[in-house]
Every structure is written in C-alpha cells, then in structure tokens.
Amino acid sequence: MSRWKAPHLTLLAAALVAASIPLTAPFPARAATPRALASGPVNPGFETGDLTGWTVTSGTAFGPGAVSTAPAYWGGPFHHRGGHHLWGFAAAGDDATGTLTSSSFAAPDRLSFLVAGGWDPERLYVALVRDADGARLLTQTGVDDEAYVRTVWDTSPWRGQAVHLEVVDRKTGGWGHINLDDVRTGDAAVRDDNGLTFRTLGQANQPTTHRDFTADPLRPQFHYTPYQGWINDPNGLIQWRGRHHLFSQYHPDAPKWGPMHWAHADGPDAVHWRERPVALTPPPPATPTDNSGIFSGSAVDDHGTLTVAYTRSTDTTAHPGATPETVEIATSTDGVTFTPGTEVVSQAPPGSSAGFRDPKLFRDPLDGRWKMVVGSGDAGRGKVHLYASDDLRAWTYDGVLTEGDGTTGTMWECPDLFPLDGKWVLLYATNEGGQSLQRYAVGDYDGSRFTPERHGILDGGGDAYAAQSYLDDAGHRLMTAWMSDWNAREPTRIGGWAGAQTLHRELFLTADGRLGQRPVAAADTLAAGPPTTVTGKTVRGGWRIGRGDSARLRTVIDLGATTADTITLRLKASTAEATELRYEKSTGTLALDTTRAGYGTPATYTTRVELGPGNTLALDILIDRSSVEVFTGDGSALTARAHPRYQESDAVEFTAPAGGRIRLISASLTPLGSAVLTD
C-alpha cells in the first residue's frame, strides 16, 4: 500500500470526549450581554465580504483576507453557500495561527455550519463557547479537505444561554487551517432552502461511552468499518476453525493514515463481523512524527496454529540506519492473542528500489512447500518477488515471480497468487499516473515463475484497492478489498472515522478467461425484510421501485424490448442529488456516476458488459449508506462510495428518456440489515 506521512496524534477517544463535554476554554469569559440576545451570530455566512460581526482575538490566521470569494481550490469546488466564505488558508497560509470569535447569541435547539480544512481536534476546530464562564461546549475539526461538509449540533441542553462561536487555529504546516461558512440556527439548521433535511453529521454525534454503528448516517451497515480511526488494506483473510477472520490496516488515533496496527474482526460467515481486540500493535513512536508500523500481510493455518506474515515498516527518519521494510511472522493458538513478531526476511533482495512489502503466504500444490509473494518495483517497473520455505521460518529467495513492462505502475502492492478454475491468477494493486488501480493477471505458474496470458482491472469503479483472497472451507475463492483509494476524499472524517472494506466476493473465471466476481452467497442473510418485487414491467419516463439507504436491487432488463438507448437507475436519490447507474445499448457501456452524489469524490466510472442469454442485462446492486457496489451477470463490477447530504436521498428509481421505454423482466428491492455482531 502507498505510505502517507501523518503526524502522530493523541488518542481520538480523548479528543471525542473533549468535543462532547464542557471544558474550560483557554479564552476569557465574556461579560453578560445586557440587550436581548440575537437568534444567531451576526454575518453567519460572511456575506458582507468582510469580518463584520466577528472579532480577531489572536494571531494572523483570520485577517481581512480570510473572507474569500474563491469558488474552487486545487481539488474542485468548495461547495460553500452564497458568494463568500471563511477560507483559513487565504489570509496567511498554513503556518499562521489565531482565533476568531463571533458575536453573542442565544443558544438554539439546533445549530449547524459548513466546515472544512485540516483534521486536528486539539488545534483546529470550531467551538461553541458559553459566554458566562468560557466553557467550551462542543467542537468540530475539519476533514483534511477544502470541500465543505455540514456539521449538525444538538444545542438544546444550553437553550437560551448566551453563547458564541470561536474558530481556532493553533496548527502550522500542512492542512494547518480551518474553514467556516453558512452558520444556521433553529429549523434552518437541519433543513435546507430546498426543503430537504440535512443528515446529522459530526464528531459530537458519535457516542463515546458505547459503540452505536447506526448513529452516523454515512456509516455503512453491512461493510466493515472502524468505529473511530482509519482503516485501509484488508489483511490476513482466512477461515480458521470454522470462523472467517478479517484483519485490516488500522490507525486508532485519527481518521487518517498513521502508525499502522492490525484491526481484527471475525464471524460465522463472510458477511457478519464481531469486533475483536487489536491483533498487532507497533512499538511506541520514537518521535512525534514516527510512522513505523505493522504493514500489510496474510494468514495461513499451520498445523492448527493461526500464522500471519506481515511487513515490519520502520520510519528511517525517526530511526536512522534501520532497514525500512522486513518480513515478520507472528502466531496465535486462540485466534485473538498473537506472539511478538519474529523476523524471517531481514532485507529486500536486489532490484527493490520502489519498496518491499505485503507478503502473501500460500501452500504451493506443485511441490507442497510454503511460498510467499512480496510486492516490489524497480527501474519504473512493478514486480513480485517469490520466496520458499518448509516451515514458515527459514525462507529462501527464489527470484522474481513476474514483473511489468513499465505501463502498469512502478510498484506492485499487495500481491496475491492462487489457482482458480484450472489457471493461476495474480492480484496486485498499483498507481498509474496518479490513479489507484486494482489489477489482475490470468496465466500459468510453474512453481517459480508466473507467465501472464491476460491482464485486466478487477473493478471498474474507483473504490476497490489492495484486494486479498482466501479459500473458504467449502472451496470457494473469496476476496475483499479496501473500499477507497489513496486519492479519495474522506468526508466521514467529520464523524471521526474513515475507510471500509468491500463486501466479500466470490471469484471465478468467465468463459472468455476474465476474472469475474459476484457477491458472496452469505449476502442473502443480510435481508431485513421482504422484497418489493415486480415482473414484466414497462417503464416510461420514471418509476420508483422503493426507498433504501441499505438495500439490494436485483434486476434483469430485456434490451430487445427496451427502446431507450440509455437506461438510468437513480440510486440514493432525491430532488437534489443521486448516484446514477447508466447503461448505453449502443456502446455496451455501464457507467457509475457520483458527480451529483453529495459529499465525496465526484467521478464517472465505466466498464464494458457482456450481455446474457436473450439479449438481457442482469444487475445485482448493493446499496449502503455511503457506497454502491454493482455486479453484472458477466462478472464485471463497479464500486464507488457516495455520501448523500440529505436524509431524503434514499430513493431507487428507473428512468428512461422521453419517448423511450425500459422493459423489466424482473426487479426486486430488498432492505438489508446490519452486519455488526455484538457477541
């Protein structure tokens, strides 16, 4: 996986407590306001074009130049309201610090605002402060993005008390600023000008005394996520002693990449998950910026012992002279507690200038020995190294398994080699021209070298990376991937968490030799109610099959009887936004479009689809609170995250252009429940 640099932060749990209980603020209390209190701060959206109604109480971060009319930044539009907003970077850049205070107003029942900028609960935040004693009642930091996300606060405990807002910037360096716009109070705090209801987001809405996986309306209900903190690559996938185990790259201290741990969950199938204790933990950091950690790896059953191999990554800036990446082995006899790691590969082989990481273990059916593939790259070409062992402890380097030609990235991460339907498959993740891609190759393996015959992209969407597979007890090849990528926006940071794993999928080879995938069979057990089902329906204009924030849509479309060239499914839809899935008959292209899906990454992803018998298009679509996974009858897939702004954005609709019609052989919409196990 790619390695970001992020400062080591104090525990997120402590930050959340600070965000939700009164604390004494480091600012003097205000004198009581003699006149009647206003219903909100003066100049709540900075539409005067200056800081009228606001007071700079320290520093230079919020000088006159902080009120900006800029509509966009380097990554796209700000999505602010009106013509102006407070851009914390505009006045003096990231290194400036300071505080800005609003006028006093009477605390309403609800208060909301748009916030952006850096994530740092201790040094960058917007605070609600009580005038009488200077107590900081609620705080919200940014999302490490310039695009605004709306925080909604329940301020009813302080109804009528004199309060004010403080915008605090005590951070320097990257993302060392905070942005604010469109402060709303009362009914307007939860309802937009178009009559739609804002989703209630923000750290203050996440319970800290217990875990409520339903509280955040952007949290997926049947995809694994961290309750707080960050996850990326899935690791150590295995069915061991009957239970499925899912480990994940994990940073518990912040919803952003940092010193990596291994989070751990297990369950009776490949869908439902019970949180287990953190399996692998790095040593305490040597310096505040030490990012040494436990990087990606895999798991096998060694005579009844759960054995994991992983990359030990050492930050050489904090540890001069250390080897940056080695391979270690750890074991567990109960599936919960692991022994300290033992180093088994002390240095990368020659030709590994781009990196050396993410070991994947497997038992080679050709010679019965343990084998290990490790991702690497050199001279502009990604490659995979191969090792062999008789006991998982003493490893012999067996050379380069395979390498690219320079067109598929300079570093191949998370390699996975396995037999499937009479051939061998190699999975690897890479970055090409700034785009994160999950690739595969199908070919032959002779025990020491892999010869690819066909290459492809595993998922045509933007959010499937670092895929890893395993063989379950029934002989099915199952796979999951990180449902994100290194370029994605993470609006869920507003609630203190980031990252999710895809639904587990079953892999197979198609008739024409491609790597296909479908939802794991156990996904059927997520059904939380009876489906809405129709057969033999003709759609003209638009038709809503139902609503579902967490649902499964399965449909078969008769393209021969469909006159519309473009068939559109509006998912997570309202009058203001939707994720669109479009199929064009004339080109055979299926597109998943998130450009009007709400918060998050706007993009359009495409794949080609081979039609089924009788000129039919079969779709199996898994809709979760902030994601859409699309599977076609020919084994293609499109995965993208989508983060709606409004509660009403949950409709599922078929639409055809004027004069056209869509003929549905069948369609069913099934509500899905939670995958979280509590025991």
Provide keyphrases for this structure.
679 residues; mainly beta; Jelly Rolls; Tachylectin-2, Chain A; 1 helix; 48 strands
Mean pLDDT, all residues: 94
Q: Largest sheet at a glance?
A: 7 strands, antiparallel
What distance separates the N and C termini?
32 Å
* Tally of DSSP β-strands: 48
Q: Helical element count?
A: 1
Structural class: mainly beta
The unreliable regions are 2-27
CATH topology of the largest domain: the name is Tachylectin-2, Chain A
The CATH superfamily of the largest domain is Glycosyl hydrolase domain, family 43
What is the architecture of the largest domain at the second tier of CATH?
Answer: 5 Propeller
Strand content: over 45%
Total discrete domains: 3
Helix content: under 10%
What is the alpha-carbon Rg in Å? 26 Å
CATH class of the largest domain: Mainly Beta
Explained architecture:
The chain is an all-beta fold and 679 residues long. The protein has three domains: 194 residues, Jelly Rolls (Sandwich); 294 residues, Tachylectin-2, Chain A (5 Propeller), CATH 2.115.10.20; 154 residues, Exo-inulinase, domain 1 (Jelly Rolls). It is built from one helix and 48 strands. The strands form eleven sheets. Strands 1, 2, 7, 8, 10, 11 and 13 form a seven-stranded antiparallel β-sheet that branches. Strands 33-15-16-17-18-48 form a six-stranded mixed β-sheet, with no helix packed on it. A hairpin with a 2-residue loop joins β15 and β16. The radius of gyration is 26 Å and the shape is globular. The relative contact order is 0.11. The N terminus is likely disordered.
